[in-house]
Amino acid sequence: MLIVGLIVLLLFGTRLPSVMRSLGEGITEFKKGMKGNDSDPNTRIEDHRD
């Protein structure tokens, strides 16, 4: 595990904070999607008038 961690640090050392931030945002969006949060401004609103 230590060797793998060192390799990751060498490869992604300068970009690691931005990668982790993106990963956190992705997890947050996934949890919102699973929760069924309807407050998303991009959701489609359908009018059901007869």
UniProtKB/TrEMBL annotation:
<dbReference type="GO" id="GO:0016020">
    <property type="term" value="C:membrane"/>
</dbReference>
<dbReference type="Pfam" id="PF02416">
    <property type="entry name" value="TatA_B_E"/>
</dbReference>
<dbReference type="GO" id="GO:0015031">
    <property type="term" value="P:protein transport"/>
</dbReference>
<keyword id="KW-0653">Protein transport</keyword>
<keyword id="KW-0813">Transport</keyword>
<keyword id="KW-0812">Transmembrane</keyword>
<protein>
    <submittedName>
        <fullName>Twin arginine translocase protein A</fullName>
    </submittedName>
</protein>
<dbReference type="InterPro" id="IPR003369">
    <property type="entry name" value="TatA/B/E"/>
</dbReference>
<keyword id="KW-1133">Transmembrane helix</keyword>
<keyword id="KW-0811">Translocation</keyword>
<keyword id="KW-0472">Membrane</keyword>
<feature type="region of interest" description="Disordered">
    <location>
        <begin position="30"/>
        <end position="50"/>
    </location>
</feature>
